[in-house]
Amino acid sequence: MENDDSDMNTALMVDGNAVAGQLEQIFGRDMTMTVTRCAGCSRDAEMGALMAFIRGPGVVLRCPACQNAIARIVETPTAIYLEARGAAYLRMAPRP
Amino acid sequence: MVQPVLEWQAGTVTAIRPETQQTKSFTLALPKWMVHRPGQHYDVRLSAPDGYQTERSYSIASPPERVGELELTVERIPDGEVSPYLHDVLVPGDQLEVRGPIGGYFVWDVSLGGPLLLIAGGSGVVPLMAMLRHRAAQHSTVPARILYSSRTGGDVIYREELDGLAAGDRAFEAFYTFTRQPPAGWTGYRRRIDAGMLAEVIKPFGQRARVYVCGPTLLVEAVANALVEMELPTAQIRTERFGPTGA
After folding, report:
1. Strand B53-59 vs strand B41-47: parallel, antiparallel, or unpaired?
2. Position B124 pLDDT exceeds 60
3. Which pLDDT score, from 0 to 100, does residue A55 have?
4. Which of A6, A92, B24, B129 is the most buried (most CB within 10 A)?
């Protein structure tokens, strides 16, 4: 992670906020203020503040502290895959 | 309050206004308009006859006080999939598929208070403009400043409006910096935003500043790191990175 590829990766990175629409479609509510605890380093971050890589065939959300992959999302014509083993948990407010 | 399901709807383009060489503002009338929070965005989806679909997120430029319609200011990315269509093909009367408003992280409204420091690179000014338009519509006296980095004088979006707001409001000031070609006679900043510039602009607000940073990823990274080094509490810093393009 110390060459031009990493610079390009950094330049292409956006925030979890950029996939807020996709997350809201999956979860049925705004998720950007939902807190994720990183399973790698135990830091808490709002989903809107995660590092998001969206230029691939799927979406990868990474921890802003340790860059651990918190979640990956892939949509196919028939299914949505959400792999989130990098999250220890999500914490969200109950529905009003 | 039950949150409505986020769904796609067809907006009608009612006006298209050029802002700069590379940016245009698109006004959409929405059948299911919903009040938004300044800083939120809409997703725009294009569908090809063969079924291929692609979507992008665009920040809302208009304040929530503008009921029934929505303004998106979009920069034309030459090799983009969506923005060249919006710029080169779309005309008033056309329909555009959108869903929103989206996002609860990068938002500010007058109830959150200030002092408010907004930092923009290129078209990153768009969601910040929604905040300023909302602040003005509410006659808010929350102290606010914007520091706005552009490549050249011709690249500044909303320049007249920002200067007009600043002229009529003692609690709001606009600062500009130019990274390539400043306008003729320019005596202000002419470099990338750096720690020294941030320290000058944030000074009257000190550690109480609520800061919103939006722009190209590398600019946002640099600004956020500088703010953390100035020991501004991270809970007061909100960032929105939009990738590799812009000033």
Report:
1. antiparallel
2. yes
3. 83
4. B129
All structural domains of chain B, each given as residue ranges with its CATH number in brackets, are 9-102 (2.40.30.10), 110-241 (3.40.50.80)
pTM: 0.91
Instruction: Tell me the one-letter amino acid at A90.
Output: L
pLDDT tens by residue, B198-225 = 999 999 999 999 999 999 999 999 999 9
Say how far residue B84 (Cα) sits from the centre of its chain: 19
Inter-chain residue contact B104 with A30, CB threshold 8 Å: yes
Q: Position of tokens 């792999």?
A: A83
Instruction: Report the distance separating Cα B28 and Cα B192, nearest Å.
Output: 34
Chain B residues within an 8 Å CB radius of A95: 3
DSSP result, B114-162: --EEEEEEGGGHHHHHHHHHHHHHTT----EEEEEEEEEGGG-TTHHHH
Nearest CA in chain B to A51: B241
Yes or no, beta carbons of A21 and B5 under 8 Å apart: no
Site from A17, A27, A34, A62 to mutate, B interface, most B CB atoms within 10 angstroms: A17
Band (pLDDT 50/70/90 cuts) for residue B247 is very low
Considering only CB atoms, B105 lies closest to which of A24, A25, A48, namely: A48
In this structure, which amino acid lies at residue A47?
A: M
Q: Tens digits of per-residue pLDDT, A21-64?
A: 999 999 999 999 999 999 999 999 999 999 999 888 899 999 99
